[in-house]
Amino acid sequence: MGISTPASRQGGRRPRGGLEREILACLAGADGPLTPAQVLASLGEDLAYTTVMTTLSRLHEKGALRREQAGRAYAYSPAADPEGVRSIAVAQRMRRLLETGGDRAGVLAHFVADLGPDDEQLLADLLAESRPAAAPDPDGPPSTGRGAR
Amino acid sequence: MSWLMWWLMWAPLAANLVLATAGPRLAHALPPRAGVRLLPGAMVVVAAGTGAVLASLGFLALAQVPAVAALGDWSPLSLRATQPGPVPLEVAAGVTMLLLLGSAVRHTLRAGHLLVRADAACRRIGAHTHGLVVVDEDVPDAYALPTLPGHLLGHPPGGISGRIVVSTAMLRALPPDERRVLLAHEAAHLAGHHHLYVQLAELAAAANPLLRPTARGVRLAVEREADEAAAAEVGDRRLAARALARAALAKAALAKAETSTGRRAAGVALAATDGFVADRARALLSPAPRPRRLLAAGLVLLAAVTLMGTAAAANRTDDSLDVAERPAATTAVSQGR
Question: Which of A75, A79, A117, B116 has the lowest tally of Cβ within 10 angstroms?
Answer without folding.
Answer: A117
